[in-house]
């Protein structure tokens, strides 16, 4: 179930190096960014989301490896208007704003919010950028600058963040000065792992500014000053919200809980008896049966590696969806 033919959009035939928790083993003569380590914390948590089936697959991503992650000094919620429909996408913020969001490869231990570490071949960079509403050519320029510095992209961006003392707006300003561009949507930020690697995560161009006064962030346009829960997102009245699309996006996120990823924070204030809650349950129940197959395909995992990298045990917090499905079947 390796899906090797999908691993690169350029259909590269380069042999894949063996990896441990996403780390190349025994690789030689490679550029620092032949692979990119990306933290997924929203729709990238599931195979359903990675393959973008809900949107017809046009923005699908195929990783070469994946592993479970816990994020520290982080909270997530809905705040950034999506470019894929009229709903709010997930955003990520540090709890202590003067410190970085951090991560550790962790199957099922300790605290922190659940995420996924995704290792992509370099050829996927333009599609990753396009999916995150970041200019693909500028993203490739950033990667080239990191290569020239003989650093991974994450470590290169970490140096920028350290110079700005992890101030989010100052970081965006510095990045815009570096490449002459900023995005109104998502901007790539460094996420240090406890093993020395540094991943990148797409974090919303902030309510307080995009890094360029001439570029108004999507969050600022809609007045999204803070992260919202799912219940709050479904009650937004500041724009014409597609509530079915919002429920479908949320399903992409919480399906990650089927792989043991800690998504309990996303289910706070969940009201399955509400109209939107029933729509969410319907979306989840429809997608759940094929999720494992989709995730193995999207992450290029076989069964043995999947069991080593993920618990594969559904989070208890998802039991409410199954119960809702049984109740609906009896109606």
Topology, element by element:
Elements: E1 19-20, E2 23-24, E3 35-40, H1 47-50, E4 65-72, E5 74-81, E6 88-94, E7 102-105, E8 113-121, H2 125-131, H3 136-148, H4 153-163, H5 168-179, E9 186-192, E10 198-204, H6 218-221, H7 230-234, H8 243-254, H9 275-287, H10 291-299, H11 303-309, H12 319-330
Antiparallel strand pairs: 1-2, 3-8, 4-7, 4-8, 5-6, 9-10
Helix pairs in contact: 2-3, 3-4, 4-5, 8-9, 9-12
Note down, in words, how this protein is organized.
- The chain contains 12 helices and 10 strands.
- With 331 residues, it is of the alpha+beta class.
- It has one domain (33-323).
- The strands form 4 sheets. Strands 3-8-4-7 form a 4-stranded antiparallel beta sheet, with no helix packed on it.
- A hairpin with a 5-residue loop joins strand 9 and strand 10 (198-204).
- Helix 4 crosses helix 5.
- The termini are far apart.
- Residues 1-5, 11-21 and 23-28 have low confidence and may be disordered.
